Task: structure prediction
Amino acid sequence: MSEILEKPEVRKIYIDARGPRFSASLTTIVLATALVTHNVWVLVAQGLVFLIGATAGPQFTPYGVIFKKVVKPRLKKDAPTEDVRPPKFAQAVGFGFALVGTIGSLAGAPTVFTVAVGFALAAAFLNAAFNYCLGCEMYLVLIRTFRK
Result:
């Protein structure tokens, strides 16, 4: 992945690669709760987490802070790192789904809520269970496509 993202003029920020997977696990639980209860405020809360991750970076979300303060000290010290840009993009995609779901729910369109939350839940589950970040892969495809 790093060879695709190489650009000498951009300052690179690297994060512990285990953090986004931990965050995806918590996100899966939150989104499943929103889907089962059909509670728009649970989705709004998750949307705010996505917004923080998309703007500041996933390491600054509440889930990222929990990982850094509670989980990471208990793990082996040598950790794989990854560029922060793909996870930030994935957080932005998640925010888009949360926004669409919230608007759908507030507009009286429960099907829009269900579909949007379902898509976000599927992506979070893929990352949590299989360490496959769909948003990160989308980012890499976009970079490859528009760099030519």
